[in-house]
Amino acid sequence: MLAPEGGPAPDGGPEAGANPALLPVTGKTVSGADFWSYVDRLGAAVADRFGSQDYDVLHQHHLTFGATAALQRVFPDRPKIALVHGTDLLYAADHPTQAEVLRETVAAAAAIVVPTMAMADRLRQLTPVAPERIVQVPWGVPDRLLARPPVRSERSPGVLRVCYAGRLTAEKATAEVMRRWPGLEGIELAVAAPQSEFAALAARADLSRVRYLGWLSREELWREFGRHDLLMVPSLKLEAFGLVTIEAQAVGLPVAYQPVPGLAEVLGDSALAVDFGDLEALALRLKEFRAGPGLLDELAAAGLANSRRFPLSRTARELGELSHAVAR
Predict the structure, then answer these.
(1) 36 versus 179: which is more confidently predicted?
(2) Topology annotation, domain 143-307
(3) CA–CA separation, 62 vs 2, rounded Å?
(4) What is the pLDDT at residue 148?
(5) pTM of this prediction?
């Protein structure tokens, strides 16, 4: 991300086209003694692959899932920037071992990066951290997507093509919406989700009216966005940023979302805030969109303007500047 697309890396940045190294370490888990055994094995693999090199600063992602704890042990004296993701805080809230790793990571970091202030608020609920150590750097979408989005297809008269993209987990209301979808005439739903999760839900409910798209690559998903009229984002809990919503807006796809912390901060009035727990009211809103496509055009224009606030080049620049400051 810190290297410009198609160009040389910035001073001190990664080599353009550099590939990550895959470390074949088994036994990944989240709790107890088995977690710390996994961290020990992962740390040995990291030391073997990277330990002889001298790094100016470490970027630590996914703070509670092993890799960060391993990096702490292999490079205890290197300056560190902790980049907080939503799953970090969700797991730290539910698993004492993950909460311990989060506290250890935050204490050792020179700076803690959050994409939204909602994430900062939740972080401070889980572990003490001085506000001045928290830096907000919004996530971003590739500049090329903002400059050259996929061509949108024409709308089908009398039909509203709705799309969902993401996991089918308990943190989303998607499963319940999909179960009730046969009652929404004239409104089509397509779902891009992991095959195993879709199959498990299909075994328990009639999903014959739902079109399964597969678990798509990012660029495939962008093209699918161009073939739909509305993206639904039925999150029930905190979202770190909601990057997929900004990608959809960049393609000109209007967004309907549950106004949970994080999403409400990033989307605001540029998307339609709805209650996915009230499916009768949701059905009425969807029918309004089907009957009045002008409403969709207004949302698309607002979303497109919002997406332009979040170019990936801005994210890279701000992380690069922070990295240089921390490494001094």
Answers:
(1) 36
(2) Rossmann fold (3.40.50)
(3) 18
(4) 96
(5) 0.88
Domain ranges of the chain: 32-140+312-327, 143-307
Distance CA 115, CA 73 (A): 26
In sequence order, the 6+-apart residues with CB closer than 8 A to the CB of 167 are 193, 194, 197
**Token pair belonging to 282:** 């949701």
SS3 96: helix
Q: 24 φ, ψ to 5°?
A: -80, 80
Residue 37 · residue 30 · CB < 8 Å: no
Kindly report the backbone phi and psi dihedral angles of residue 272, in degrees, each rounded to the nearest multiple of 5, phi listed first.
Answer: -90, 115
SS3 of 128-156: the string is CCCHHHEEECCCCECHHHHHCCCCCCCCC
Q: pLDDT by residue (tens digit) across 191-230?
A: 999 999 999 999 988 888 899 999 999 999 999 999 999 9
Would 32-140+312-327 and 143-307 be classified into the same CATH topology? yes
Half-sphere exposure of 197 (CA within 13 A, CB side): 17
Who contacts 51 (Cβ-Cβ below 8 Å, separation ≥6)? 74, 75
Q: Phi first, then psi: what are they for 172, rounded to 5°?
A: -120, 150
Q: Are 109 and 82 in contact (CB under 8 A)?
A: yes
| 3-class SS of residue 115 | coil
Looking at the chain, how many residues does it have? 328
| pLDDT exceeds 50 at position 115 | yes
Fold of 32-140+312-327: Rossmann fold (3.40.50)
> Can you tell me the distance from the alpha carbon of 326 to that of 321, in angstroms, rounded to the nearest whole number?
9
- 141 vs 268: CA distance, rounded Å: 18
pLDDT in tens, 280-306: 888 888 988 888 888 999 999 999 999
